[in-house]
Amino acid sequence: MASNQSSEKPRLISAIELVGAGGYDKLRIKKFPYRVPDVNEVVIRVKFAGLNFADLMRRQGLYSPVPKFPYVPGFEASGIIETIGSNVSNLTVGDRVVTFAGDGMWADTVVVPHDHCFKMPDKLSFEEGAALLVNYITAYQILFEFGNLRPNKSVLIHMAAGGVGIAAIQLCKIVANVTVFGTASASKHNIIKEAGCTHPIDYHTQDYVAEIRKISPNGVDIIMDPLNGEDSVRGYDLLKPLGRIIYFGAANVAASGENRSLLTTFKTWYKCFSTNSLSILSNNKSIAGYHLGYLLKDLDSTKEIALNTINELFRLYNEGAIKPRIDTIHSFSKVGEAMQRMHNRQNIGKILLRPDDESDTNKTDQTTTKQEQEPEERLIDAFPDL
């Protein structure tokens, strides 16, 4: 007589795991046990997840905050709610949503607190949703919270063809008569001009400071600086009186190759702009630092700031004022290729990752190890540090 005991296998979810700081060999596809949500959580079946420059720096061991290895990276994702906790009333099964966290989003299924999850506008695609949160929140808060962007101002946007760069250009267009200078390789100039960049500058062949001085001898009002190092000094010197520079990254640190270089890190740190509260008085310029990773880490205290920005971005999207540009989409098993494309600054707009389907999981990939057959006895949690 057949046994009545269920033979159904335990549900497993697939994710990208980062096992340590280093090259692409530190990434692997792995299976984890499914976790039932608690009363205030929801389960999201992920459609797409975003790749950000911070993910590259985390892999190299150059970014803080970072969880203990091994962990599942990823700051943002879009998908469909498949299960809700008993206390959740603002969301229902089947809702199309976006979500973000300090890590944990590179999985085919994620469990998140319900108040870290946002219904998508009807016209927003899953691809656009996964490209919206990190890039556009960053650009919006830098330009409008720190930068106080107003009509007739000028803005310098470094890495203008990247995800944050495209977002910033689009956001500048919602304010009247803003002059946008953008650094990007020459092959990307037509695209960033179409997006609204007034003066594209090829950083490979041109000195952006000299080129800006030709057009605007007094400099610029706002600088978005994700580079740091020597560029942090050049940018500060390029500001007009009452201008402001916002540092929000250190891409120059990650410019050395697949693995981090301590020499490059030291050189970048040594060349960073340095001042004090007394010496800055006579310069009549403002300096700010922005780090979305720490805002996400302290999301319980910054939730209202994030929600206000997201609501404003959804409004702007519905009005047609902003629209994420998707560069390429890579399966989870091709995450190394996706990172390499971003590291080489080949992307124009957002690079996305998507969970592997059956055809993907049967393929080999040089940038990730083979998928393990047995799950590790630990759970994926999108918010281990929150």
From TrEMBL:
Q: Give an example GO molecular function.
A: oxidoreductase activity
Question: According to the UniProt record, where is the region Disordered?
Answer: 350-386
Listed InterPro entries: ADH-like_C, ADH-like_N, ER, GroES-like_sf, NAD(P)-bd_dom_sf, Quin_OxRdtase/zeta-crystal_CS, SV-ATPase_mito-regulator
Q: What Pfam families does the entry give? A: ADH_N (PF08240), ADH_zinc_N (PF00107)
Q: Which CDD domains match?
A: MDR3
Q: Can you tell which superkingdom this protein's organism belongs to?
A: Eukaryota
Residue ranges of every copy of the Enoyl reductase (ER) domain listed in the record: 22-353
Q: Where is the composition biased (Basic and acidic residues)?
A: 353-363, 371-380
Keyword terms: Oxidoreductase
Q: What family name appears in the similarity comment? A: Belongs to the zinc-containing alcohol dehydrogenase family. Quinone oxidoreductase subfamily.
Name of this chain's protein:
Enoyl reductase (ER) domain-containing protein
Q: Which species is this record about?
A: Rotaria magnacalcarata
